Amino acid sequence: MRSSIATAFFEGLASLGSLHPAASPRRHGVEVERDVVYGDDHQWHQLDIYKPVRRPGPWPVVFYVHGGAFHLLSKNTHWLMGLVFARYGYLVVNISYRLAPEHPYPAAIEDTCSAYRWLAANIDRLGGDRNRVVVAGESAGANLVTALALATSQRRQEPWARAVFDTNLVPRAALPFCGLLEVSNPQRFRERREARSGGEVRKLPRWIDGMIHDASTSYLHGHSLVPSDATALADPLRVIEAAAGLPHEPHFERPLPAFFAPVGTRDPLLDDTRRLEKALARLNVPCEARYYPGGIHAFHALVWDPVARRCWRDALAFLDRHARHR
What we know:
Layout: H1 2-18, E1 30-37, E2 46-52, E3 59-65, H2 79-87, E4 91-95, H3 107-126, E5 128-138, H4 140-153, H5 159-165, E6 173-177, H6 188-197, H7 206-219, H8 236-244, E7 258-264, H9 270-282, E8 287-292, H10 306-324
Parallel strand pairs: 3-4, 3-5, 5-6, 6-7, 7-8
Antiparallel strand pairs: 1-2, 2-4
C-alpha cells in the first residue's frame, strides 16, 4: 500500500512537470512513442521511445532504466531522462519493469534483459545504430544496467542473461548514476560510517538506513540478504570485484563497456561507486567516476541546479568520446 501511494504521488508530480511548455518533446525536436509492449505482461512490460527527428539517423541509442529502490516509480516518472538524451541526438528506449516486493528478484533484471532483447530485435527498424548503444540508469536502475552490462559480456548460467549475450548487441558505454550496486548486505553503509567515526559523529541517519534496508528486503523478498550465487546479479558490483581479484580474468568473453559513474558527495550510496571505480581499474576497463560536491542521491534529476547541469555536461561529453561517433 505504501509503495502504491508513493508511486501515485511521484507519477502525479512527473505528469504535472511534463505540462510545462519547456517539457514539450516537439519543442526540442523529439517525437515520443509511448507504452510500447515488449513482453508478456502488458501491465508492466512497457517502454517509451524518444526519437530526435531533427537529426539524421541512424542514431546512437540510450537504453534507460529508472530507479526507485526496486519498488517505486516507472518510465513515466523518468520522462525527463529520455528527453535530455533525445534532445542531444540519441534514440532513447525508456523502460518500466515489474516492481518488488510483489515481484522480487530476479523480476526486475529479467525484465530489463527482456526489454534489451526487444531492442536488439527492433533497433534497425527504429533507426538506431547497433554499434553505438549505451545503457544508463540511476540508483536501482544503475544496479540493473550494470548487471545488464555483465550479461552482454559473460555467458552466464541464468537463462534470461544468456539470452542477452546471444543477441550480440554489445553496449559501448554504461552510465550507472548514483548506483546501489550491491543489494545484499544493506547494513554495510551504516557499519562503514560507524567504523570511520567511532559510531558517533558520522552515524548514518536511521531513516536513510531504513530506506536502504527496505530496498534490499523488497528486491530480495524470499531470498537471503547474505550474498549468494542464487542472487548474483542483484550484486553486480560483487561480480565485478570477484573478477578483479583474479590474477587472470577468464570471466568475460567480451570486454566490459566504458563506464561513467557519477555520484554526489552527500549520497549515502557513495561507497558503491568508489568500489566500482577501484574494481574496474584493476580490470583495465575505462571508468570515469565523478564525485560532485554537495550532491544528494539522484541530484542529477534536479536539472535547474548548477551541480546537476555540470553532471549532465560531463555525462554527455563522456558519450561524445565513447559512443556518439562511429
